[in-house]
Design a protein that fits this description.
single chain, 174 residues, alpha/beta, 4-stranded parallel β-sheet, 3-stranded mixed β-sheet, 3 helices
Amino acid sequence: NGNLYKLPMKLPDIPDRTITLDVSNNSIWKIDPRPYVDKLVKLNVANNKLVFIDQETVKNMTQSKLSMNISNNNLKFLPNSIQNVQSISIYNNPFMCDCNMTWMKGWLELDSIVEPDKSVTCQTKEGDVHKIIDVTESLLDCNYDTEIGLAVGFGILLILVVVGIVWAKRCPYE
């Protein structure tokens, strides 16, 4: 191994069979759609250069009872569809702590997740390292009030502009 940069496009056709695919210790950098992913029961992509996992591909994979190893890669984020993988190993990835990953806390607390994955950490933009199971929206300052206020404000402004245009068309100045 060692010279794969992506998952194989095709595998030998074995009708009505499940697939175990071990592509560990390569240079694979993404998991993206393949025609065989719905037949996978075990996927080992440990010790690669993974930076991206396609959300829809994971959804297609989890139709089977999938066991997946994505440890020792370069993943900063995971698609939330990864929660449906029956058994997974994710340790030793440089996860980023941000407001889009707070779902991972609840997921890692499940009984199906075992050590060392319960101790997986993430790093904030400031460089602080936290166990993901300790990360909360308040710790990351995930305050959406400003965004909601701006959206409401722009919505009201847009309505006023439309009303003004309609009024100007109906009552033109003479």
